[in-house]
Specification:
By secondary structure, the chain is an alpha+beta fold. Helices cover about 35% and strands about 40% of the residues. The protein has a 4-stranded mixed beta sheet. Strand 1 and strand 2 form a beta hairpin. The longest helix is centred in the N-terminal third of the chain and has 18 residues.
Length: about 90
């Protein structure tokens, strides 16, 4: 029970820290508006809504995933909704 509670607290702290950070990926700024972590079995899935001014390429998304992945030891699944702002 304690391990489950500890994991929930750790996830919430990480979600809040993501919302305060802006990421520079390949000269493009990404702003995380909303982030949540869910578990499917032993896999951690991060759901995010991000804002970007320029269209994102597959390279941009892979670089962004690598930056997020540095905070975790296990492989992540990241699902993004991208909103473009003028």
């Amino acid at each position: 029970l304690y391990l489950s509670y500890s994991r929930i607290v750790e996830d919430r702290i990480f979600e809040q820290s993501l919302r305060k950070e802006r990421f520079l990926v390949n000269e493009k700024y990404l702003i995380i508006v909303k982030a949540s972590i869910i578990w499917r079995g032993d896999k951690r899935i991060i759901l995010m809504d991000i804002l970007a001014r320029e269209p994102l390429t597959r390279e941009d998304l892979n670089a962004f995933k690598k930056k997020i992945q540095t905070n975790f030891s296990k492989k992540l699944i990241i699902r993004l909704k991208t909103f473009y702002i003028p």
